[in-house]
Amino acid sequence: MMRTEIDHRVRHPEKQHRADNPIQRKPAWIRVKVPTHPIYLETRNLMRASGLVTVCEEAACPNIGECWSQRHATMMIMGEICTRACAFCNVSTGQPNELAADEPERVAAAVAKLGLRHVVITSVDRDDLADGGAAHFAAVIAAIRDAARETTIEILTPDFLRKPGAVETVVTSKPDVFNHNLETVPRLYPTIRPGARYFQSLRLLDQAKRLDHGIFTKSGLMVGLGETKSEIGQVMDDLRIADVDFLTIGQYLQPTVKHAAVDRFVTPGEFDDLATMARAKGFLMVSATPLTRSSYHADADFVALREARAARYSV
Question: For the whole model, what pTM was predicted?
């Protein structure tokens, strides 16, 4: 289904029962400029013409101007309606449409036209599908391999909760990076990520690495939701036990008054401290800044990730 210019991101009927949380004024280190670059407009128009959805728009990412001006876009497959209603997420919740059979080819054509060296593919949660959409992920990866052989592929998957065989299907399709975000500390899951299970997400990352030890695994956390530093440290330890290579940490930004409130804005210096702590725990790569998001600078980070692994395991 083709996107329109209507901004539907404020429509969250499933969240209307939540009490309003006033949106706090952002500190100076988080404010970004309104995008006006001509390549930004060109990228946006290509996505519209191709009938594609991007998480950049659906999740109201603050980095959209910078990324689209460099022809970087994170494509969101399987529609724009999620079967979950996480308290932090700006994607609409409801009953999704049927999968578009031609979507893999449309995604691949856009990747080729943009000339991407590295592409990030994510999706909504599709609890309505028997495999959670795993086969569709595999089809998109295969189509990109055919259309843009030099492009490296990073996937950001849902948790495939109660979807046996899903992770095997995705890993067998050979993405270069398997990313799944833990999002927050386990104590906050009931209120922030109620449809998910912390240890299911950990198992997913561990299983991906066990199935293909050569694949890079990656996960991300939001801060500013009320977590403690010791809780973040424990999540880092859990991720390292699962042999996760790359950790991203960014500031949670409240999309609307119906979403979870920001507990506090974490300072740039605190992000530096978290990055230092994560590196000391053995991650190959760490990106921790207020504006860090899973796919922010993903192309450059992938190059650095390969170099870091080569340096670590060189004889």
Answer: 0.86
